[in-house]
């Protein structure tokens, strides 16, 4: 995904009445939280935000141009109207260049496991990975290829290979993906394997 840039302006007036006025005029009230804990209020264009936010996750690094000044941020939270689907409020988190950050990155399972082609069922219990890295090294998602995964085999966090600048914080024993057979299939497979051994050679 290309680096997404949102435009915004600082706002001095806050409160529910001001927020309602902004929404009526096609704007979205928002807040930018810094690493130091300080926060300031901004206003976004609703049409631009709604158009550009599609496909963006909490691990997508964005450029937020506030009155012409560039800020690197993540979207940390959004509030939407449950009936209209319109955005009511947005929270951004600002990062500092050159300083490591902690983030949760989505895990995408790719490929068709060999065990699935043989009748097994793929399970992928891990949906995101917690990492520590510089903002420039943060991936939008992590692809895990399961093509060679056979029945009753699994991939753990410790098996993942990421870029050298990314430190994984999630437990290495966490299962990322595994292929299981149903009890009936497993029993049939065991019986099939045992049958030749049980046959006595003919004289």
Q: What do these coordinates show?
A:
The protein has helices spanning 16-24, 46-52, 114-117, 183-198, and strands spanning 5-10, 27-33, 39-45, 62-66, 69-80, 87-94, 101-110, 121-123, 128-133, 142-145, 154-156, 167-168, 175-180. The chain is α+β, with helices and mostly antiparallel strands and 203 residues long. The strands form three sheets. Strands 1-3-2-6-5-4 form a six-stranded mixed barrel. It has a four-stranded mixed β-sheet with strand order 10-7-9-12, with no helix packed on it. Strands 8-13-11 form a three-stranded antiparallel β-sheet, with no helix packed on it.
List the helices and strands and how they pair.
Elements: E1 5-10, H1 16-24, E2 27-33, E3 39-45, H2 46-52, E4 62-66, E5 69-80, E6 87-94, E7 101-110, H3 114-117, E8 121-123, E9 128-133, E10 142-145, E11 154-156, E12 167-168, E13 175-180, H4 183-198
Total beta strands: 13
Please tally the helical runs, counting DSSP H or I stretches of 4 or more residues.
4
Low-confidence stretches: none
Structural class: alpha+beta
Shape: elongated
Strand order of the largest sheet: 1-3-2-6-5-4
Mean pLDDT: 87
Biggest β-sheet description: 6 strands, mixed, barrel
Please give the radius of gyration in angstroms: 25 Å
Order of helices and strands: EHEEHEEEEHEEEEEEH
Query: What's the N-to-C terminus distance?
Result: 70 Å
Please estimate the helix content: 10-25%
Strand content: 35-45%
């Amino acid at each position: 995904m290309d680096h997404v840039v949102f435009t915004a302006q600082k706002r001095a007036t806050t409160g529910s009445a001001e927020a309602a006025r902004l929404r009526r005029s096609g704007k979205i009230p928002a807040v930018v939280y810094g690493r130091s804990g300080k926060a300031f209020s901004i206003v976004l264009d609703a049409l631009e935000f709604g158009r550009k936010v599609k496909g963006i996750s909490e691990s997508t690094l964005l450029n937020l141009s506030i009155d012409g000044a560039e800020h690197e941020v993540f979207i940390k939270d959004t509030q939407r109207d449950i009936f209209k689907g319109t955005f009511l409020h947005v929270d951004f988190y600002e990062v500092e260049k050159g300083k490591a950050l902690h983030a949760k990155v989505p895990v995408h399972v790719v490929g068709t496991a060999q065990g699935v082609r043989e009748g097994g069922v793929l399970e992928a219990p891990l949906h995101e990975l917690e990492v520590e890295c510089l903002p420039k090294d943060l991936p939008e998602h992590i692809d895990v290829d399961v093509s060679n995964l056979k029945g009753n085999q699994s991939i753990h966090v410790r098996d993942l290979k990421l870029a050298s600048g990314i430190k994984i914080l999630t437990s290495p024993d966490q299962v990322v993906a595994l292929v299981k057979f149903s009890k009936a299939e497993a029993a049939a497979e065991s019986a099939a394997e045992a049958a030749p051994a049980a046959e006595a050679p003919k004289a």
